[in-house]
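Honest question from a wet-lab person: if I give you the sequences of every part of a complex, can you actually get the arrangement of the whole thing, not just the pieces? Trying it with mine:
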Amino acid sequence: MLVLLALFFLWPIAPSSAVGQLHNGSSGGAFYIGYAGPYAASPASAFGHLFLLHQPTDDTPLALWRAMTFRADVTHMNSARSFLQGVSGGLSGSFAVTEFHELTLDYELIEDRDLWLFRLRLDRAEYSAMKHHFRESDGSRHRYSFFTSNCASQLLELIRGSLTELRSGGAFVSPLDVVQRLAEKERIESAYVRSAATRILRFQVRELPSRIRNHVANREWTELASDTEWIESVQPDHLWFLSRYFRYRQIDHRHPLGEEVAAGLGGLRIRLAENETPTLPSAPHLSPGAPTSFPTWHPRTEVSPYLRFHDNRSHRLGIRLRPALHEEHESWVGHRPFNSMVLLTTEIETAADELDPTLSEFTVFSQRSLVPQDWLVDKASWSFDARLARGGPYGARELHAEVGVGIGLTRRWHGVAVSILPTATVWNGLDDLTSLHGGVQFHVNRRTDHFMVYGFSGSYGHAMIGPGGGFGGGRAWVGARLHPRVAILGALAQRQDDTSTTLSVRLYP
Amino acid sequence: MKFENLSRKSALVVTSFILIAGLAAGCATVMTGTTQLMTINSNIDGATLYMDGQEIGTTPFTGTVPKNKETLRVEKDGYRSETVALSKTLVPNFWGNIIIGGTLGSITDFATGAAYSYAPATYQVELRAEEQSSLDYQQQLVVRKFAMVYIDEIARDLGRDVGGPHLDGLVRLLRKCGNETASRGDVETALTNSRGRPQAFGEHVVSMI
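Yes, you can. This is the full assembly:
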């Protein structure tokens, strides 16, 4: 009997009929959802981009998989016009199929975005249905609206043709909403990440011998690429890094390559073909195409009850409603560090001992793109803010409107990013008081292992035209993620003659 | 605190002035004039190039062309003329370009289609011979583009005993185009003969179809 039992448990078992129903790709093909992270240069890409990827057969190389995207048609349209029409829903869009290598060229290299792939769990019937919808949708045209008919909402409808259990649209569907809905229904079998080019280069350069690292960091890239003698001296193990580095540098090169550079790059390719070039060591989450755990993103909507203690001993209770996007205290993966964007956020508060609800702040739109400059990246940092708020230069409790921009730079030391941005801000007291302040804004940000974040930001401006004199303030904060849907935040703020401490719970419904 | 009235209009004018000055100072590299140096090649030498109807030269072409043109037409006797839309590429992470609308900071780039970029400011336009079938033309376009754009990855895969996805992809494309015997050895020979240059490599690879 024991022998029979042992045989029962140890004998290789053929897949059960239920498992056999699962389309695991072995008989040819699978579908993936692809998610390209946010792209700071374009507000329209602030939520990232979603596409559906078809692996036709098991042995088809990834580069030749077919990707279905829905995009607005903006040919012959400048970006300001396309942005305005996209927001107002005045564009048309279409589904188009391209090969995966074309998408990755754009996303990973040119736009420097992280890319996630999620393999879908489908049974045979669902796989066949999705293949049918994939084929049928190619070239079909639909109205494009950034909010109601975007890449994510259109793709969701396409997927729902096969997976009817998924919740349909809503007022606004973001790419991550679709990924989350698939995850909720356990439709995601495995996840993969392909990091942006700069992430990989930054990580791998630390693994290089100092002799090569110094050349890469300190010599102009075209000079280095023309130095065939030096390239010949590089060990085969490091050739691929060099190739990727030169490829990345070419993106911002605005002229055709000179003959010497072309010859140097050609020689490098011949050496690549003649030598085994192993992948340089990478952190697990940086390995291109390596399986990864399912990432935890925060939902875009945030509700934050808070308690604020002022130094004049008045305590206020408030609630903050943020319908969309991402702020610096949110440490989840999926967004570039130190980039933030807030849309239509309302803060309402009342005295703790008496109900007197007042609008404390209403942010129409606020964005920070704080890109650290280093040996690899030389991008400007910038900010834009448009909001109604209290506590401006015309009085601590006066409501005012402000529109401000800043352009400056960010540097990073040991994981801490420090940004300094000269700013110009127009203040309006809503009663014909208007002034223009020139000033400076600075930020210090630190994130630790995607769990805890802390930072400091401050600004000072002086009225160059109009009333208001000098005005400034600062805010230090520390936040921690307790759960995918719960975080806490503590902040100490100083604005003019008011000091306050705020404790808030950030909920992501 | 001193309070004064100021017309909104004058404040906006001053703000605009300061912003434009800031953009010019903060990102001077993107404001490099109204022309740019560009190379345009095609699968057939001697094709005539027109930008918005104005002749600029013949392929292989390297010269200064105006930015912000909308179309490029390529013509050659015995071939179908090809018109490709030009798009504007924003300099990444620069907010000013979004507000300006790409007019000042943009460089000219090609939308996908018969034309593509494989090196900085260097483009390839695929022309279709009058007698060539649409399928043959598409295959030729795809194979050449894949070879030229992914020449680095293909070279790396060649150095590996087990190959890699881009080498496999190219061999697979060649077989799909009718060259049943295409092998990594053929690709290796093409790379060596082209001295690792993308355009020559593309030509060698297309000749295998």
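Two things worth pointing out. Residues 1-27 of chain A have pLDDT under 50 and may be disordered. Chain A touches chain B through 80 residues (CB under 8 Å).
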